[in-house]
Design a protein that fits this description.
With about 140 residues, this protein is of the alpha+beta class. It has three helices and seven strands.
Amino acid sequence: MITEVTHRVNFFDTDAMAVVHHANYIKWFEIGRVDFLRKNKITLTEIMADGYIFPITNVSAKYISSAHYDEVLVIKTIPTALTKAKMEFNYEIYRQCDSAVLVKGYTQNVFTHRDTGKITRLPEKYYNRLQQALN
């Protein structure tokens, strides 16, 4: 299931020329990922309470065009891979008013047990919900 969420560019997201600083796109990938999980009935609070975290192990971004202060952006999150140990997403961030693609990106997360820091297998209650979202 591909999800989309909007985000209005804040002034503090920009530089002195009102252009979005490149690092913000990585934060916006996270907004998309958290929104994807929420739409699939998984909250970070719930999964962390069960002792699981999922740190980023790989991230990339291809910058195509700039966003500016006060523009409304759409963060499109596309799940691409899921195993019981990791998940991967592609992203497109585009301007809402003209659909111009600004950035394309990728992340990989690994499921890790919070107490040990070791990679672990995701329990069925989460894995099944995520698997359904990919179909």
